[in-house]
């Protein structure tokens, strides 16, 4: 990509943000060198890496790669047989411990179903734990080697300790003995690495030994007594042996490190690459960005795209299309209305996407792979080069026309400005026509009405405008494709207090054609606003209808299920009664034959008959009790019923609706779901049933509820922009309403952001007994910015 476009679109500011996300110096350097690629396979690989790293950040939290220091120079020294010093060995040890921590982060969880494209990189890392453990055992710090580093070193240091103890014993006997009066102070000190005592100058001959130093005044001499000269020599000799043994230990450790030079080099390369990848993912998380879908057809379709350098609370998302139905987009509108931001957003997001960075836009946004992006944005006049604003812009245009082809994206800000409006408009139309004929994807902003007419009358060219609210004198920053912008100079001037007679005089100065064109623009804008409002209302009604339809389907399903259960129970009860009657009949016949055969007297027969009669009375009593339970509270008359009344059929315990008036015998038809049956009026009772008429809560004089609030509850709640406490309070009430409304599942929109709101929502859901399960949204459902909740049945 050319440097001018990178500068004009402020791409390097994005690179600065990316660099801050890297942990290691080499990772930061790799971020600084990142530039857009024009290879589709390379772009898709980098986008996939960023997406998988972002998923890991959401699942496992942030990862810090530490200060991965460059160990390549140390590895190079090992190749030529040199030994490493203590600092280099500790650096390699820290690096391996860091590798071990990163590898642990990359290990898959039990819930992971399939490895991602980063799994191989994590698996390739070799922590070399035995090597790092050995280095850490031998080297305690940059100033200290452990006594356990080797048996020889331990023996040497033991000898040094013994010699030190003997020296202190000798010197203490001098300091605390009869020679105390000869000393300046009763202390033992070191001079030139040898133990001495401070002797007064006048008594120097009283303490035989070697003078090593004297005080600045000359009143004190530091003398090494002759009795410890040999012991000091022994310590000095042991110190030399210690230093030699330390060199042997470092050489041994260096040799062990050298055996793993290739693994260390691979680890270093992978760690830097992972740092680079996770820096891209961290930037995507901060920007709430998504992976764009790339094509090579020159199609751009950005959904709710946001300029990444404008604060989240100030930026207005815009939808931009280019390259499918039209390849030239002319953007018009008032100053500070967002025209320049719109074309900068397209250019910057294209550069970001081709660099492997996610873009701040909605899911399924599309970008095309361009070999070059040309951008003429801003005022680049140069005093040194004697270039005016118009000249500087024309210099850029000439360069673009020479180099641009079908694989280029060209962006113009205020094309043709800075000169005579008539000539400027003519030049702008000619330039855009030339690019349009070559099929080059182009966006241009302008104030010229001639360009609006050109876009309206030319196939493959489309108008767009940045919306402006005349009432508040503020731009809304919304980009409206297909609607040419209207000059609001007269309306704005009037709002600001310019007298009407001056505005009327100004209107007389414009031609009838221009005035008609502006009137047409006003009419189109009013029509667009009306249509948008109607579409919003239609969408709202569609959602309400879908919710009602779903609720009715669930209710019908429950009714059908309950009817099946009742019918099955009734059949089983009838079969039981018939079986009992059959058993009584069989028993009666058996006894009758027995009495005939045995000629039993009538008194015995009468007793058996009474016994059977008691059993039958018992059954009849049970049946009467069951019927009594189903007996209506009030015996209905034919005049009490009318078509459409809600009733309960007592014998079947089913609710239904009266279909016909009762006949002379009291028989009528009742519709029970899909079942239509004839029943008698004595088997019915009137019930109060909800009558669905409107999606509002109202109560009739008879107490019938026409529609509860829960019947029109939305299947989605939006918590964006709320604190955790505010969101939980609203979510608690919403879930109660949704559960009462018998919704099977709901969708909670909390966004990605820092993850605090999502975590707060999940912690709340864990404690809800009526929640069966919850999960993050899948691709197309909102990804990690949405949670899907399933209720218990």
Describe the 3D structure.
- With 793 residues, the chain is α/β, with parallel strands linked by helices.
- The chain is built from 21 helices and 25 strands.
- The chain has a six-stranded mixed beta sheet with strand order 12-13-14-10-15-16, sandwiched between helices. It has a five-stranded antiparallel beta sheet with strand order 20-19-18-17-21.
- Helix 2 crosses helix 11 (261-287) and helix 6 (86-106) crosses helix 11.
- The protein is flat.
- The two termini are 58 Å apart.
- Mean pLDDT is 81; it is low at 381-387, 627-631 and 691-710.
Strand content: 15-25%
The average pLDDT value, as a whole number, equals 81
Would you identify the regions where 5 or more consecutive residues have pLDDT less than 50? Answer: 381-387, 627-631, 691-710
- Principal-axis shape equals flat
- State the end-to-end CA separation: 58 Å
Number of strands: 25
Question: With helices defined by DSSP (H or I, 4 residues minimum), what is the helix count?
Answer: 21
- The helix-and-strand class reads alpha/beta
Oligomeric nature of the chains: single chain
Strand order of the largest sheet: 12-13-14-10-15-16
Helical residue percent?
A: 40-55%
Largest β sheet strand count, sense and barrel closure: 6 strands, mixed
Overall radius of gyration: 46 Å
């Amino acid at each position: 990509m050319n440097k001018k476009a990178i500068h004009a679109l402020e791409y390097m500011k994005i690179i600065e943000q990316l660099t801050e996300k890297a942990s290691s110096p080499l990772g930061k350097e790799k971020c600084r060198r990142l530039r857009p690629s024009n290879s589709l396979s390379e772009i898709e690989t980098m986008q996939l890496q960023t997406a998988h790293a972002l998923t890991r950040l959401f699942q496992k939290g942030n990862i810090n790669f530490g200060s991965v220091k460059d160990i390549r120079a140390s590895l190079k020294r090992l190749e030529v047989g040199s030994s490493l010093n203590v600092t280099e060995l500790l650096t390699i040890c820290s690096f391996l411990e860091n590798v071990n921590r990163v590898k642990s982060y990359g290990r898959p969880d039990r819930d992971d179903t399939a490895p991602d494209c980063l799994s191989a990189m994590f698996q390739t890392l070799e922590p070399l734990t035995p090597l790092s453990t050995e280095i850490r055992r031998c080297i305690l710090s940059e100033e200290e080697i452990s006594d356990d580093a080797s048996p020889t070193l331990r023996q040497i240091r033991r000898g040094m300790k013994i010699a030190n103890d003997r020296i202190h014993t000798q010197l203490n006997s001098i300091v605390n003995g009869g020679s105390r009066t000869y000393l300046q102070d009763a202390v033992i000190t070191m001079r030139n690495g040898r133990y001495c005592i401070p002797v007064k100058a006048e008594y120097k001959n009283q303490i035989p030994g070697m003078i090593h130093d004297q005080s600045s005044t000359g009143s004190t001499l530091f003398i090494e007594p002759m009795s410890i000269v040999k012991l000091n020599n022994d310590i000095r000799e042991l110190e030399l042996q210690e230093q030699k043994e330390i060199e042997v230990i470092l050489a041994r450790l260096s040799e062990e490190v050298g055996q793993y030079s290739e693994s260390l080099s691979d680890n270093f390369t992978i760690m830097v690459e992972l740092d680079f990848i996770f820096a891209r993912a961290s930037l995507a998380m901060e920007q709430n960005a998504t992976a764009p879908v790339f094509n090579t057809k020159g199609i751009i379709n950005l959904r709710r795209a946001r300029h990444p350098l404008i604060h989240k609370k100030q930026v207005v998302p815009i939808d931009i299309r280019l390259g499918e139905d039209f390849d030239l987009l002319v953007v018009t509108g008032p100053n500070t209305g967002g025209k320049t931001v719109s074309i900068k957003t397209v250019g910057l997001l294209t550069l970001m996407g081709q660099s492997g960075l996610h873009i701040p836009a909605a899911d399924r946004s599309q970008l095309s792979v361009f070999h070059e992006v040309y951008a003429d944005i801003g005022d680049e006049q140069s005093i040194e080069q004697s270039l005016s604003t118009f000249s500087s812009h024309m210099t850029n245009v000439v360069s673009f026309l020479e180099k641009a082809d079908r694989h280029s994206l060209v962006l113009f800000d205020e094309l043709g400005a800075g000169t005579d409006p008539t000539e400027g408009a003519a030049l702008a139309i000619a330039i855009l026509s030339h690019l349009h004929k070559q099929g080059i994807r182009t966006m241009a902003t302008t104030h010229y009405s001639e360009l609006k007419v050109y876009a309206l009358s030319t196939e493959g060219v489309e108008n767009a405008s940045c919306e402006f609210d005349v009432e508040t004198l503020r731009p809304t920053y919304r980009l409206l494709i297909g609607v040419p912008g209207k000059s609001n100079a007269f309306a704005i001037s009037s709002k600001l207090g310019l007298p009407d007679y001056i505005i009327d005089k100004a209107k007389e100065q414009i031609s009838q054609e221009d005035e008609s064109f502006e009137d047409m623009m006003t009419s189109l804008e009013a029509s667009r606003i009306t249509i948008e409002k109607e579409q919003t209302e239609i969408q709202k009604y569609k959602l309400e209808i879908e919710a009602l339809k779903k609720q009715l389907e669930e209710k019908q399903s429950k009714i059908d299920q309950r009817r099946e259960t009742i019918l099955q129970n009734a059949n089983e009860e009838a079969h039981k009664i018939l079986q009992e009657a059959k058993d009584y009949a069989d028993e009666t016949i058996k006894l009758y034959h027995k009495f005939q055969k045995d000629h039993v007297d009538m008194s015995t027969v009468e007793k058996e008959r009474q016994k059977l009669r008691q059993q039958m009375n018992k059954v009849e009593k049970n049946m009467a009790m069951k019927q009594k339970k189903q007996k209506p509270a009030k015996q209905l008359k034919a005049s009490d019923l009318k078509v459409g009344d809600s009733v309960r059929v007592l014998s079947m315990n089913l609710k239904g609706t009266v279909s016909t008036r009762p006949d002379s015998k009291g028989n009528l038809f009742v519709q029970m779901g899909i079942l239509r049956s004839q029943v008698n009026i004595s088997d019915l009772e009137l019930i109060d049933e909800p009558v669905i008429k409107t999606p509002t809560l109202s109560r009739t004089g008879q107490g019938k509820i026409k529609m509860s609030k829960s019947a029109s509850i939305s299947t989605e709640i939006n918590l964006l922009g709320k604190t955790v406490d505010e969101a939980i309070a609203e979510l608690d009430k919403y879930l109660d309403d949704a559960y009462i409304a018998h919704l099977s599942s709901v969708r909670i929109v909390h966004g990605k952001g820092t993850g605090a709101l999502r975590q707060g929502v999940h912690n709340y859901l864990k404690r809800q007994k009526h929640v069966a399960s919850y999960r993050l949204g899948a691709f197309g459902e909102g990804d990690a910015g949405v949670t899907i909740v399933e209720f218990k049945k």
